[in-house]
Amino acid sequence: MKLSTLFAAAFAIVGFCNTASAVTYPLPTDGSRLIGQNQVITIPEGNKQPLEYFAAEYQMGLSNMLEANPGVDTFLPKGGTVLNIPQQLILPDTVH
């Protein structure tokens, strides 16, 4: 395979890939190590989505959602259920 064909294929693959996005947090000014804010949502009535759907909506892992919401049905949470979205993090004890 020609080198130019490999470069063209690599360029096409990179060109069609989505860029990664991440949640950004401002650093605390008061010397605290806590960043972010926890959120609380209510699952709509007649819900047909699994807990993983709500985790993805808030860019959270399913295991984090399960730890923050013990007892919630993973496969089909009931409408009206209050979910805690754990978006508060602790920074390492180092110079910021």
Automatic annotation (TrEMBL):
Keyword Signal: yes
Signal peptide (residue range): 1-22
Organism superkingdom: Bacteria
Keywords, ordered alphabetically: Signal
UniProt name for this protein: L,D-transpeptidase
Source organism phylogeny: Bacteria, Pseudomonadati, Pseudomonadota, Gammaproteobacteria, Enterobacterales
